[in-house]
Description:
By secondary structure, the protein is an all-alpha fold. It has helices at residues 2-17, 21-28, 30-54, 59-82, 84-91, 95-124, 126-146, 153-157, 166-179, 181-211, 215-218.
Amino acid sequence: MPLVLLGALVMLPGIVVSPFLGTMIDRIGRRKVSIYADVLSAISVLLFVLVDRVGELTFVWVVLIAVLGAVFDPAGFTARKSLIPNVAAASSISLETANGRHEGFFAVGWAIGPAIGATLIKFVGPVNALLATSLLFFIASVSVMLMRVVDAASETHGQDSPSENFWQATIAGFRALHADRALFSLTIIFMFTSAVYMPIEMVILPVHFERLDNAGGLG
């Protein structure tokens, strides 16, 4: 039951924050949002280790820190994804090539990441394994900081109406999405598949391996 509750609570920030990420990235800038989000995600992960060192990492602490981290993760991922056109232009390669490389490396990381996590859990413990996660967030932040790309904040913000505030820009974004039937259909399909897949990954599999007392097997 605790894992089910944790999985549900961790999903809530993404649902609340995600609809506003596009406007936030347009106003602040793709690279800035990516850097800030990764730094904040790294700090939120370090909080697990800090709380464990100075006190007791109770279920309440796990929920609070996990929900906090879940607020920043979608922003970082979305901002990095939106940087692909900038990277393609700076690298003088086609957008298709840049996106293909991004998705290829992402798929490799998605495949080997759980195995590495399980290995770290086995040898250093679950809390200490989070140090590696925090370090990778910092590395991602520094990597984006060192990228020689033009931050497109001024370009995208300049397309807004001068009197258009944050909420009006967000609504305009939803209208633009709805007007593009192909993109809107893909968005609905993605939402549906995520609604089916995420509970399996976040709730069912952890509960199954918890009952087997095999945390490494989950990885």
